[in-house]
Amino acid sequence: xNTDQILAASKQKLSAAQIERVQQLENSVVxxxxxxxxxxxxxQLAVFWRDTASAFLPAAFYxxxxxKLENSEKKLTFAAHLFLDNxxxxxxxxxxxxxxxxxxxLFERILELNAVNDSxxxxxxxxxxxxxxxxxxxxxxxxxxxVADRDPHNMYAQMMLGIGGVMTGQFDKAIDRFKxxxxxxxxxxxxxxxxxxxxxxxxxKASAIQWYQKCKLLIRNPEIExxxxxxxxxxx
Length: 236
Fold this sequence. Notes:
The chain has 13 helices and no strands. The protein has 236 residues and is mainly α.
């Protein structure tokens, strides 16, 4: 699946007036010969798809297009994480690969601007790992491990390696990584939830319940609390 197909499928869900608006913006990009004007139009397209159409994929794509033109580390990082942070929740393999390749390109551009940006190196490894791109499935994990071995206090790398451990069924290793994050960041809800899920997948119900309950103490969202209660009750 390519970008043109994704945009075409997204447009099928729009009203006639919305399609006209999108086409006006798209045409202004083609006509615009000033980079600043093109960046502005890409930003407008991103806002339209995000706020008016509630369509994540085209919104992320146009956010990335604006970031590439602007070529700032900050904007590229924001766009890269739009793709990366939504990879785990994407069930469609073709869309997952498309998202991962977009994230990969953006992280590579960041590293061209700043070769010592460890967060971008971890993000790049995450794109390979979560998106299953590249000929070697371990390629992404090795990228992340290089950062973690050099800087054990890089909690982003530790978290990503924990996720990689769960993906490869190495639950004890994943638990060790998530515990390192929780030890350094006791209020990190994502790490605590990942730790609980790793224990659950390992089959250690008591530990899973313990960490789900800790997660409940930090969350102030009734809907999420209900979901956690349901998980806990299933484990009892």
